[in-house]
Amino acid sequence: MGYKIKSRIWIESDNNVLLGEGRVHLLKAIHETGSLSKGARSLNISYKKAWQLLDSVNKSAKKPVTINSVGGKGGGGVELTQYGQSLIETFDEINQNCWDFLDEQLGKLELL
């Protein structure tokens, strides 16, 4: 019998979610596309939902996570700050370490 272990992690700041899988996916999509609307579209979520998630991250973070540029001839855009990129990398590392630990713990059940 093959067991599976399921878990999701998120990081909170003052009872507000700073980062979780969905927010990290959005930040990565913004980084790849340079646009909140394109990033939202690539994840099949509404612009409004993406804006709310991004706003929540920026309000919960110690420093700005994104830099917005106002539209003009070429249109506006959003880019991640170095801090925003560091948040993604750190979250991914924490998440991977969590999965590695859980897989190790699951191995204990397999031995029973």
Q: Count of DSSP helices?
A: 4
Rg estimate, integer Å: 17 Å
User: Could you spell the SSE succession in H and E letters?
Assistant: EEHHHEEH
Order the strands across the largest sheet as they lie in space. 1-2
Helical fraction: 55-70%
Major beta sheet summary: 2 strands, antiparallel
Question: Which word captures the global form?
Answer: elongated
- Report how far the terminal alpha carbons are from each other: 12 Å
- Range of strand content: 15-25%
As residue ranges, the low-confidence spans are none
The overall average pLDDT, rounded, is 90
Class by alpha and beta content: alpha+beta
E-strand count: 4
Explain this structure.
This protein has about 110 residues and is α+β, with helices and mostly antiparallel strands. It has four helices and four strands. The strands form two sheets. A two-stranded antiparallel ribbon has the order 1-2. It has a two-stranded antiparallel sheet with strand order 3-4. Strand 3 and strand 4 form a beta hairpin. Helix 1 packs across helix 2. The chain is elongated, with a radius of gyration of 17 Å.
Defining key terms:
112 residues; 4 strands; two-stranded antiparallel ribbon; alpha+beta; two-stranded antiparallel sheet
